[in-house]
Records
---
Amino acid sequence: MSTIKRLPDAEFELMKIVWQSEPRITTSEIIDTLEDASKWKPQTVLTMLTRLIEKGFLASERTGRQRNYTALISEAEYMSVETGGFMSRYRGNSVGSLIKTMYAGKDLTVEEIEELRQWLKEKEH
């Protein structure tokens, strides 16, 4: 796949389940995970999984009666594309401007500030 395209929200939710269950996950495990969180019918889930395969996000293989899914694009790869696109469209690629917008009217916790400091230190080296 040459370029990673933005996923619709529903497909992104499915990918998050796959990423959390690496290296692979079965259809029934996906449906069981979604059972509490959504009202999607199994056929809807299967349709979205097929779309994700066609888009190059997932690989699928049958093992016995089960179908296993493996992510072909990592969460980090996808999030890099997603946040990069957002930054260039809405914030002119300014990290500072993005953070100001995200936390406008909210106070950062001590832990969040420390996490940002640590990230900045890592980027300096």
---
Amino acid sequence: MLNENEISNKIIGLAIEVHQSLGPGLLESAYKECLFYKLLQFGLIVEKEKPMPLVFEKVKLDCGYRIDLLVEKKVVIEIKSVESLNDVHFAQTLTYMRLGNFKLGLLINFNVSLLKNGIQRIANNLY
């Protein structure tokens, strides 16, 4: 069984492969589908558009939150294709992590010339 760091290293490698093949400028959905395919091909358990309910006063509320990709029930992936990542994107990823009690998230912006510049690794220190 892989730990979060091993999973995230594999995700990053596969995301770089997707980016090298497609380049920047496509819709988020295209990158999500291609990365989903690559992760499955590698043999990882991946959930796409995973619903994430909000618990308020001990009641689960479906507010439409969806994690782009959840890998091995451990690592949250939030995919973007934007000019630049900002605090709202970071907060969104961290919110998904907190709602699901996940330790690690990857915020990946595919709309960059070099993908390593578009990846933010987010650790949930409140775990």
